[in-house]
Amino acid sequence: MNILIAGVGGQGTLLASKVLGRYAVLCGKDCKLSEVHGMSQRGGSVTTHVRIGDRVHSPVIWPGAADVILAFEVLEAARVRHFLRPGGILLVNDVKILPMPVITGAAKYPEGLKEKMLEDINGAYFIPAAAIAEEAGSSRAANVVMLGAMCRLFGFDKEKMVEAVTDCAPEKFRELNLKAFALGYERVK
Amino acid sequence: MKELMLTNRAVARGAYEAGVKVLSAYPGTPSTEIAENFVKFDGVYAEWAPNEKVALEVAVGASVAGARAMACMKHVGLNVAADPLFTAAYTGVNGGLVIVVADDPGMHSSQNEQDSRYYARSAHIMMLEPSDAQEAKDFTKLAFELSEKYDTPVLIRLTTRVAHSRSLVELGEREELPLRPYEKSVTKYTMMPASAILRHQVVEERDVELANAVNTMSVNRVERSRRGSKIGVVCSGVVYQYVKEALPDASIFKVGTIYPLPIKAIEKFASTVQQLYVIEELEPFIEDRLKAAGIKCRGKEIFSLQGELSVLKILEKFNRSVPVPVPEKVPGRPPVMCAGCPHRGVFYVLSKLKLTVNGDIGCYTLGAVAPLSAVDTVLCMGASVGMAHGFKKATGGESHNIAVIGDSTFLHSGITGLINAVYNESGITLVILDNSTTGMTGHQDHPATGKNLKGEKAPAVLLDDICRACGVKDIAIVDAYDIKAVEEAVKNALASKEVSVIIAQRPCVLLDKRVRPTVMVVDGCRNCGKCMKIGCPAISRTESGVRIDPVQCTGCGVCAEVCPFGAIKESER
């Protein structure tokens, strides 16, 4: 199982991957995660790779091999959609964050990205994760809302996922994250 | 239960279990987390050194004193530490000495893509390369054993995809080792010609001994194809993992000792396959050695010298009929200075004054990006100062240039450049962007922050005192958010014929927890776009005027300072 998490630096892709890694450990599976630190984290595009299986070698997912893409922003979903395998699931947080070239007017935020992805990809889902997270208490928990939705869409073991969220979330935000997870889970029926 | 562990943490764990007592490092992606994790163990000493040369010298000192010791750095840091490295190969060790170097193929967070494996060969220092976290821990422990057994420093090479991946690790117990007795030996530890000539012979004998020994070490292993494939692949590190997925039928020679290479064992392996490939990232390091030994193989004639490899890239080269998906053409999202970054206002001023800016390595390298587009040159740690001096000397002092460096980078290697500028009278102006941290690598302390690696209180060196001691008389200290003060200081400094230093102070906004009122656009915005020139990610332009995102805004007020119509004000709370 290959899960690619894509977002903008600072959106919490690392926490999401840690939860999935913990889930793999709880399930007794082999697991590898690959993350990017340093310069790219300063508001740039970031991807985190999660691979779970009986025996995992490469820590990095390659184009055409992702079973799931969790995209925390619409443009970032479009940037990595070629990683999705045929029949894979693309779950997108339906928000737009303007990149600097768009802010300065050097580029335009492409129109109709969402519509095109919905048309091209059968397993594409867009959810307002930031707004749902706000219901849970903070828009910053959008990453965990996405995990909740993914857990249901992919038939993950809910109890183990909840345990993984509990283990990985900082104590101060544990309740908030568990609520965000539950709301995300409920959202995709 | 095994633990899912970042490889850098696994290296730290390996060092802990191996009984390491002293670790010294300078932060650098992708190596930083080794020191950060090692310091968390009880009964060890770990520190941030001001640069990698010092870090390695500290580790060599601890080794000679009898302790197991480690120095960690990124690839370009090894250039800085190269001086002690080459001669430590001669002195050998007392307690085991291991140097971890993390390369960055693909340049995720680096200014070049150098292949540090060549250091092992030219310095005659054994090098091991692990391929995941468990191996990183095991190889670290092995490295200490080999270091003591063969009286040599040992290098461990990581690459970004190994250092920054997490995989399962089995924990072990720490081996508590007594200090080995230190015995004075001028012929071993005092490297002057008479003794170094003798030690060079020892190095050569050690090389021969190790070159034989590696052929039977278990870290060099053959994985034979069960399906009788005719293809054999020689690989190491993360590339081994890619090969396992891309070519499951191939026979593999997994190299654990990059230097010396197990040439005899590979020769034997080569004789059992019809076609031998060497798959490696960056330079043809292994391939060239095999060819020199008369082993026929293919490598860089099919694979690039640049960037990272991947499972897909290997599949493609072996003509597997894999569909290669085409990426969508969408606008890029380059990294940017954070909203509220104290560097922003300074670069706005330098850009406005149309100065040639000799920049340096850190978050402020982003001052080169549009719309600020302020930075002209970036070379290596500390180069801003020397290059600014060179500009002045080349143009007879006429060049309209200024040097910009961060606080951590100044302490790392900017000071000697400043002494040179004073001594050789170039009259440069240097701006030290003092954000009280090592920013880009994720907020590490340094000698001027008042805290050590453990987070404990430590003596803080004062940047202005250092500049004064270097002979600089013209020193101005300004608030980086006060762009009028910054502009005035820059103009004054440029007017002076002497070397001037401006210290622009403000803690990194990601660390500055003080709550300031955010700003908002009030009536009077004429949509002139002036505030867009500071490149703040919180500000965007709509047809009706400018909008400031209250979630991202930190209230630094730089946009309000540049607004010619007073249309940006503190928002009401």
Task: Indicate the topology.
The complex is a heterodimer of chains A (189) and B (573).
Chain A: E1 2-8, H1 13-26, E2 30-34, E3 45-53, E4 66-71, H2 74-80, E5 84-93, H3 100-103, H4 113-120, E6 124-127, H5 129-136, H6 142-153, H7 158-168, H8 174-187
Parallel strand pairs in A: 1-4, 4-5, 5-6
Antiparallel strand pairs in A: 1-3, 2-3
Helix pairs in contact in A: 1-7, 5-6, 5-8, 6-8
Chain B: E1 3-6, H1 7-17, E2 22-25, H2 33-38, E3 45-48, H3 52-64, E4 69-74, H4 75-80, H5 82-91, E5 97-103, H6 117-123, E6 126-128, H7 133-150, E7 154-159, H8 160-163, E8 165-169, H9 186-189, H10 193-213, E9 221-223, E10 231-235, H11 237-246, E11 251-254, E12 257-259, H12 263-270, E13 275-278, H13 285-292, H14 311-317, H15 343-352, E14 356-358, E15 375-377, H16 383-394, E16 401-406, H17 407-423, E17 429-434, H18 463-469, E18 474-479, H19 483-495, E19 500-505, E20 519-521, E21 539-542, E22 545-548, H20 558-562, E23 568-570
Parallel strand pairs in B: 2-3, 2-4, 4-5, 5-7, 6-7, 10-11, 10-13, 14-15, 14-16, 16-17, 17-19, 18-19
Antiparallel strand pairs in B: 1-8, 6-12, 9-11, 20-23, 21-22
Largest sheet of chain B: 7 strands, mixed
- Which strand order do you get reading across the main beta sheet of chain B? 3-2-4-5-7-6-12
Question: Poorly predicted ranges of chain A (pLDDT <50, ≥5 residues)?
Answer: none
SS-based structural class of chain B? alpha/beta
Oligomer status: heterodimer
Question: Rg of chain A to the nearest angstrom?
Answer: 16 Å
CATH class of chain A: Alpha Beta
User: Total domains of chain B, how many?
Assistant: 4
Helix percentage range of chain B: 25-40%
| CA-based gyration radius of chain B | 27 Å
Average pLDDT of chain A works out at 94
The tally of helices of chain B reads 20
Instruction: Give the end-to-end Cα distance of chain B, rounded to a whole number of Å.
Output: 51 Å
